[in-house]
Amino acid sequence: MELPENRYGEDKSVSPRILVAYATRAGSTAEVADAIGKKLAQKGAGVDVKPLKNVQTLNGYQAVVLGSAIRRGAILPELTAFVKTYKDELGKIPTAYFIVCMIAREDTEKNRKTADSYIDPLRAEVVPVDAGIFAGKLDYSKLSFIETIIIKYIIGTPEDDLRDWQKINDWAENLSPKLLNINKEK
Predict the structure, then answer these.
(1) Within a domain: residue 186?
(2) Where are the alpha helices (DSSP H) in 12-157?
(3) pLDDT for 67-120, tens place per residue?
(4) Parent domain of 148
(5) SS3 55
(6) Quick one: CA torsion of 27, 4, 127, 120, rounded to 10 degrees?
(7) Is the model's pLDDT at 65 over the cut of 90?
(8) pTM metric for this prediction
């Protein structure tokens, strides 16, 4: 699967620059990351949206937004490794997290607490200025045979796109001042 990489606010003089990097398995998180990047660019930032595996440095970024799909009740391992690797740099600039998970499809207190707990390993490394939790898209054609059997027949989760684009855009809009107006330099 080809993962999207986009740049918004291409003028090199646009400041600040924000990195929106993501880990995904089926592509839903990449689409959410792109929507967040577009909204942040509309608020005046230059934004790079890219898969975590394509991020070589945080130099030149004044803020970072990191996202992951949730699989088997956990953040994808590449995001956890990324946060540990760049912990010192992330601790000096505004950093936010978002997750995309099917448990968020039903907005109950129990589900919110469960979904929020998925972010705890990242919070233990770098405290974010904010964290977003969004329902995802379940497309059996993008899953392995075993994953499809487990999710469809054992867990019983129906195939559906439950992403709430208004909620995603609202979160990004509210996140913008937290990223653009905070200087965590020590």
Answers:
(1) no
(2) 28-42, 77-85, 87-90, 109-117, 120-123, 145-148
(3) 999 988 899 999 999 999 999 999 999 999 999 987 877 888 998 899 899 999
(4) 6-180
(5) coil
(6) 10
(7) yes
(8) 0.85
